Structure formats: C-alpha cells, structure tokens
C-alpha cells in the first residue's frame, strides 16, 4: 500500500508539472483532489486494511493531500501572475481612478434643502403631471389669464398638463394638512421657453410656504435674505421689487447680482408674496384666522450664482469637461 501511495504522489507531481495553463491546472485539481478524485479513491481503500494499518495509512494519505494542495496553490498563484506580453513594472504609478459624483444641480438641490431645513422647513412633494385646478384655478389664476396660454404651457390630453410652477404643491399641501404649515418643495417644471443663457424649457424650482397666525411680509423678507446670506455668503446682494402674481398679495420679485458672460447683472431668482385670501378660501382655510407667505425660486439660477456658471445650457449638455469641474 505504501508503494501505491508513493506512486500516486509521483504521478500527481509529474502531471502537475506538465499542466501549462489555468484550464489544465483545474483539470489536474479535479483528477487528484476532487471529491471523486484519485486521492479520495485511494482513501476509500482504508476499509480493506487491518485495525493496526489504518492509522499509518491515514497519516500518510493526509500528508500527501497537504503536499499536493500546497503544490497546486503555488502553481495556481504563479499562473495568475504570469501573462503573455511585455514585462510589467509593478513600481510604476497607476492611473488615477476617477470616481463619479453628484451632478452640480443635484448638489445645489441638496444644499438648498439643507439650508431651509435648518430654518425649520420640511419637504413636501407633488406630481409633475398636474391638472388645471392645481396649476391655475386654485392659485387664483382666472380662465382668461395669459399664463394659461397654450403657447406658454405643455398641455396634455384632458385637463392634464406638465406643471409650469411648483406653486401647485402649495395647494396640494394645504388640501391635505391643516395649518400651521412650513414647507418647501423642490422639483421640475416645464415651460416652452426659448433656450438662452438663463432660460430652459425644463427647469427646477424651490417653492416655500409658511402659514400660521400673524405671519407678515417681514417674515418672508427675513427668510429670503437669511437664505441668500447662508447659501451665497455674507456679501450676497439680494433685492426685492414690487411685482404681481395672482396667488400672492402683495407680491415681489427676488433678484440677485451675478456675473453673466463677464458682466455683473441683477438676475431674477424668483417670485414671492403673501398668500392671497382667495387661495386660502379655495382650499377651505379661513383667511381671517391664517396668514402666510410663499416664494418660488429658480434652482438653475441659484446654481449659476453659487458655482459661477454663466450659461444654463451647460447644466443640461452633459459635457464631462464641464461637469468634472464641480
Ligand atoms: C413663478 O413661477 C411663481 N410660481 C413663483 C412664486 C411662488 C411667486 C410663490 C409667488 C409665490 P416665475 O414665473 O417668475 O414665478 O418663475 C420663478 C423663477 O423661476 C424665475 O424667477 C426664474 O428664476 C425661474 N425661471 C422661470 N422661467 C425659467 C426658465 N425658462 N428657465 C430657467 N429658470 C426659469
């Protein structure tokens, strides 16, 4: 029996030496070390031995198994390291691995949510495909208002449309939850505007709504100025101009100074105002008891100001050279 073990060892060693590639190595492993391999086969002959012979045989077979496994492992790691082609200089520095990152717009959205979150606003969501009630009627926009013009909106079948403003979410929130309310909502809006340095046909807005007892225009101004200073830095220049929106009274535009094509200009970031009593009545909230402010800011314009981007189209062209800068 001892001779047979020696013979198996010699055969296995010779066969392993001849295995020239990974496939041959695997075939060798199966033939000698596999569950139905030759070592297992010889092991099964243990039962033919006497009680005295068995431990000696077992020890020799275990030693052979360990030797063959070690030889196999060392051949296998050698095979993995060897390759065809020129020698590899392992001391040469590798190529830098470029990791992916958030789009500059996503980053801006996250930052805006964070700043308003610190001011006590929670986040609400609403659908991008809306009905005319939420986009116009409930917002006190009469049937003959120019904002409803089909050339200024993406209408779908029935009374469905792609929302043209996130003010729709104000209505949805007030329909669902009683005041007091303090929410922001971030999302895409759609308008068939001609693309230029500051306009795109799909863009993002952040809507804010605060409804409580005794809320005034001072609270609105404070929140917007605090946001600007917190997000853009203490030197941020912001101004409010009287304006008109059917859903706020009084209303104002919020502008911020930014550099466009090398020139400092005031750019409109959004609109704001005190929620019109007609809007509150449309959602069954008593305007004698509750007052509130609302605002809607363009996120692309905020990102442009924050990251020195002079053309909104850069945000949507997916040019890696542009995106990698942020
Ligand atoms: C509104 O959409 C109002 N819903 C804002 C509002 C909310 C007023 C709550 C009062 C109370 P406006 O149409 O001005 O307003 O748009 C708001 C901002 O969206 C603009 O100031 C601008 O920053 C951005 N914006 C508008 N059109 C575009 C466009 N085509 N491309 C990129 N940003 C745009």
Could you explain how this protein is built, in words?
- Strand 7 (238-245) and strand 8 (248-260) form a beta hairpin.
- This protein is 39% helix and 22% strand.
- It has two domains: 2-80; 104-323, 2-Layer Sandwich (BirA Bifunctional Protein, domain 2), CATH 3.30.930.
- It has 326 residues and is an alpha+beta fold.
- The termini are far apart.
- Helix 2 packs antiparallel against helix 4 (53-81).
- The strands form two sheets. The protein has a seven-stranded mixed beta sheet, with helices on both faces.
- The longest helix is centred in the first third of the chain and has 29 residues, at 53-81.
- The protein contains eleven helices and ten strands.
- The mean pLDDT is 91.
- The protein has helices at residues 2-18, 22-33, 38-43, 53-81, 104-118, 132-135, 167-176, 217-232, 277-282, 299-307, 320-323; strands at residues 122-123, 129-131, 154-155, 160-162, 181-190, 202-212, 238-245, 248-260, 263-275, 291-298.
- It is elongated and about 105 Å long.
Biggest β-sheet description: 7 strands, mixed
Q: Could you say what the CATH topology of the largest domain is called?
A: BirA Bifunctional Protein, domain 2
Strand content: 15-25%
- Mean pLDDT, all residues: 91
What value does the Rg take, in angstroms?
Answer: 37 Å
> How helix-rich are the residues, as a percent range?
25-40%
Going across the major beta sheet, what is the strand order? 1-5-6-10-9-8-7
Provide the CATH top-level class of the largest domain: Alpha Beta
The CATH architecture of the largest domain? 2-Layer Sandwich
- Distance, first to last CA: 74 Å
From the spread of the alpha carbons, the general shape counts as: elongated
Instruction: Give the number of helices.
Output: 11
**Domain module tally:** 2
* Bound compounds: adenosine-5'-[phenylalaninyl-phosphate]
What would CATH call the homologous superfamily of the largest domain? Bira Bifunctional Protein, Domain 2
Elements, N to C (H/E): HHHHHEEHEEHEEHEEEHEHH
Q: Strand pairing plus helix content: what structural class?
A: alpha+beta
**Tally of DSSP β-strands:** 10
Low-confidence stretches: none
